[in-house]
Amino acid sequence: MGLLRTEGFTKLLELVAEESDTLDSAYTAALHAATLGGRLKAEVGLGALSRGESVALAELRNTGARRHLPLVQDTVGERMVLTGTGRLRVLRDGEPAPEGVLEIGRVDWDGGRPADLDRLWDEQQRAEDAESLSLHAWLRARPADTVDTMVADLRRTLTHVGPMRVYIGDRCYTNLGREHSNLVGKSVSAGSEQCRLNGIDGVPVERWTAHDAVFVVCMSALIASGTPSRTEEFSGTQLTAGRLEAFIRAKITSYDGEVTAATEQLPLVERLFALAAHARRLRPGKLERGPQIYRTVQAMTINKQEQFLDRPVTSADLPAAFAAKVTELLPGADLDRPDHLVAAWAQLMPALHGPTTDDAFTTGLEEVIHGLVEAGTESTGSHVGMSRGPRDITTLSALVAAGSPDPGHWKTSDYYCCVVPGQDFTRRFDRAPEELPQVVRAIAARMRWNGWHFMPHASGVSDHPSFADRDWFYAPTMPDMTEWTSHHHQGHVANGVRHAIRVPLGLTLAGAHRPGIHDFRLMRTDGETYGVPELRAAIAIGRVLQSVYQAHADRSQRTGPALVVSDFGNTWYQRRHAPAAAAL
């Protein structure tokens, strides 16, 4: 396979550095590098700068300084470099560059180097250092067992959430990728010496670096302000007490809360944790009474930000072609009433559990799922749409009711993913038709793995001892909209998954809500990023799919016998797409 493959992150950084070499303005070159050629929002890219570097960047803008590419021996003047993690660094005159950086250029101060640059830079650096030392001092004053618990809690959380990368001064803390990882995650095991948390575990705090103290305190407070996925909301930026306090205060405001006078009087760290606790208390109420919550994902740095839609999603958000499809299947159904939709599908479910006249599908249920995903894909201008779930919902429900850990040990083959390539996407394989079924199978395999990955938490048994060494993530609960996701994840690099929408779909099983059992996803390999209208459409489509899944689960739990989804496997995809490809 190769038609959709992207250059990958390292090659992209080289391209950005080359592009910056064509820019005369030092500030313009710096901004181009910080935003990775406009692929990353400026507030995220510039958020990676230290306070001193931010002062220098402001001077570049104010003075109109020019950029020159330095010779190897030329170290006079400030330099701009791009690190292997995609971070812009502004190095002060004489400061050595880290290893493996890409040169963006040397600053040519046309009117002379600003006289107060060093003073301003030093002031900001001292303020940053003082803040770090105060957090270090606070941590030194805690009992040893309290500190040990904080480190253990961080290690456990980072093991079960998505990758992130934060900066503290000139230090990077990350579990993203193999080359730079120094925290537990996909590339570093929980017991590895490579994990920085293991390097400080059990070590007296006075022997820690101030950077490590800041990471433990600030990351703990950040997580305490909401859900475990908060870890990703500072990804790609500086994690400092000042930036964190501003972030949590903004969350309190977005949750319709206020900060009490008593909290304002607290010392810095106590204030951080008090603010975090207040935000955490306010969040559920906002979710209950507010409009749909979602996340925007800047995939170049895996920066994820919680957002709210300005009004509830309704059937009016359904694309016309998709709404017509549903109306054809369920004439008269109230598309704004989830209970009505489930009831309408329930009436059809006995027939859907039986065979269909379309030889491509084993049952009517599989035909309906495919038809809805197909309509959702085409009507949103997507290249591929998909929806995953467990093959045997009857057995899953029974095991969940019994509190059994068995579902968490199912194989990836116990899950399916209905992947539907759009017509435009399919035409891209005219030159290499044999690649289409390979790509579709690869996407389906990855999505089946997601079902496996989330099941311990989704089925409510993640604390079972049998999962102590099992790789699992917290099941997703909110929709997200991702841009430029095609340069980190191996599968996304191979298949050009550039922009995407994910809508997690929970189910009521055994009397309780089980998050992330199913989902609905859309992707584009190029073209425009998804916007809020497409996100709203995807959420509305997801609700229709969720009602199908719930009606299927209800019938399976109530009457049986079990309907095990058998379509959407490798053989099925090869049979569906290979004949058409061979005829081209």
Tell me what the structure shows.
- The chain has 20 helices and 13 strands.
- By secondary structure, the protein is an alpha+beta fold.
- A hairpin with a 2-residue loop joins β12 and β13.
- The radius of gyration is 26 Å and the shape is globular.
Total of DSSP H or I helical runs spanning 4+ residues:
20
Q: In angstroms, what separates the terminal alpha carbons? A: 18 Å
> What number is the mean pLDDT?
92
Structural class: alpha+beta
Low-confidence segments, given as residue ranges, are: 580-584
Shape: globular
What descriptive keywords fit this protein?
584 residues; alpha+beta; 7-stranded mixed β-sheet; 4-stranded antiparallel β-sheet; 14% strand; disordered C terminus
Summarize the structure.
The chain is α+β, with helices and mostly antiparallel strands and 584 residues long. The protein is built from 20 helices and 13 strands.
Architecture blueprint of SSEs:
Blueprint: H1 8-20, H2 26-34, H3 42-45, H4 51-63, E1 66-68, E2 79-82, E3 88-91, E4 102-108, H5 117-140, H6 144-159, E5 165-168, E6 171-174, H7 196-200, H8 210-224, H9 241-254, H10 261-264, H11 268-289, E7 293-298, E8 303-308, H12 320-329, H13 338-352, H14 364-379, E9 384-390, H15 393-401, E10 415-421, H16 423-427, H17 435-458, E11 480-483, H18 490-495, E12 499-509, E13 512-524, H19 532-558, H20 570-582
Parallel strand pairs: 7-11
Antiparallel strand pairs: 1-4, 2-3, 2-4, 5-6, 7-8, 9-10, 9-13, 11-12, 12-13
Helix pairs in contact: 1-2, 2-4, 4-5, 5-8, 6-8, 8-11, 9-11, 12-14, 13-19, 14-19, 15-19, 17-20
